[in-house]
Request: fold
Amino acid sequence: MKHKVFSCCISLLLSATVFAQKDLNPGTYAFITIENPSNFARKNVPVALKIDSLTAKIKKYKGQQIGIFDGSKEIFSQFDDLNFDGKADEVAFLVDLKPNGKVKLLVRTLPQNFVRPNFEKETYAQMIKKVKIGDRETMEKVTEASSDKDDMYNQMHHHGVAFESELMAYRLYFDKKHTVDIYGKIRPQLELAQTMWYPTDEQLAAGFGDDILKVGSSVGVGSFKPWDGKQAQHFDQITRRTQRIVAAGNLRSVVEIEVDGWQYQGKSINAKIRYTQYARHRDCEARVIFEPDFTDNLIFCTGVQRMPEEQFHTDNAGLVGIWGTGFPVNDTVKYAKQTVGLGVVVPAQYAKGQAEDKRNHLILLSNNGKQEIVYYLTAAAQKEKKGYQTAEDFFKYLDAWKQEMLNPVKISLSEK
Reply:
């Protein structure tokens, strides 16, 4: 079935008098408390909550639209339909937290007399399919594409879905490799709507970024892969492969690869690999979602690719990273070498050790009989003007990033 993206960014601008807590009607609001369990400050922490968990705390909720407020000011929130039933089921927003600090936010039903402002777009997702009309080829923006053959790589502009924040752009190859590739920036900005991954000479001269990594048959950064006991493999045997943009709002992009009838280790598996990137973030969450009746305990892999010149970093406990240099494309005359940082973190409940093959530094994964596997990936370009310039700096970032990823904020809901 064709899915439609349902994503809206809502923040309603009303007077402080209307939203003063003393003026709220009883039973029309609840509270969200977010606590930082760590002794370091955190900025732009993603928070995603099921809408029904919020509205269950509002006694007089009768299907009204809701907003999330810090005092009398509504914060920038994105409401998404992630299960494609035609209504928003999850709300996402970002918060800043002091060391061991907490914030208490108000969630409330909204009156009718609101004004909807225009917010700055901070993330972007793009799928472009090549369409032939007679002898002419044109480009068509789509939110989903699917095939029961391995024939979509060349049918899609930039070979698959792409998405970005102002700091980093990614694309997912629409073929049996499913590789995650990266596009690095020089300065923080959204670029894919203009460059469509392949900047012109004029755009390069003006300071736009470009593809900075040659991934080949590797895992790139954070690709989810089959494992044969010796090396990472591809998704060769499937009955259908789909890519889609699940949500494309101002605050986050959610995209996914779906495989049906995947023959793996004697099993037939249906699964989605979903990637979520938030505004002001270079990293992504990767969430592998198996069909509910899948309870087998199998081994998979992810990781970072090897590069011709590289420094490798690991803590032997779910973190691998490299700082590497190489040519990003086959044209080594026009294009110079690029230096990049790549990193992956896998929580302990999924990590099953590390491995190496000729193309990759790998972390082995298991779903442990559960429906999901969650892990995280990140990347950086040395050419970023305000980014990481050395392996030492990037590896320090990886270590700190791991602490954030594996020590999530604590969230509680209450009526007072």
Q: What stands out?
A: Residues 124-385 form a domain with the Beta-galactosidase; Chain A, domain 5 fold (CATH 2.70.98). Residues 6-18 have pLDDT under 50 and may be disordered. The chain is about 10% helix and 45% strand. The two ends are 42 Å apart (CA to CA).
